[in-house]
Hints:
mainly beta; Beta-Lactamase; 4-stranded antiparallel sheet; two-stranded antiparallel ribbon; 41% strand; elongated
Amino acid sequence: MEIDLLKLNYSDQIDIDTDITYDDSYLENSGIIHLNNVHVKGTIKSDIEFNYDVLMDLSGEMIIIDSLSGEEVPYKFNRNIEEKLENSLRSLDLIGFLWQYIVMEIPMRFTICDDLSVKNKDYEVISEQEYREKKNNPFKDFHLE
């Protein structure tokens, strides 16, 4: 979606209020499985030096992998964008421009699991409290000082 910035030569601002759709080529190697309900609303204005002031609210939902369970989970994001663009631009690729902000919203680790214990057929990670409560703990009689 290209926005013609030359419209600001005869208009005070450009209003934006639209839904954005990203194809799979953007999602490759990003850590995002799918994007839902991506919406942007805001304005682009020309300042006194004829640069462009971009003020937008970006929101949506990304489907990512849960850090603990490995399942696909939804992660909502909301980002306020305030950026100044050079006046040498004639148009703005809105999809490419917003993609850099979406990528910044991807969490490094995210989980919706309330139970933080991890169990596998070979091992189990338990809390300190669970460790103390285990009945057949072979080390329960040892006291380290």
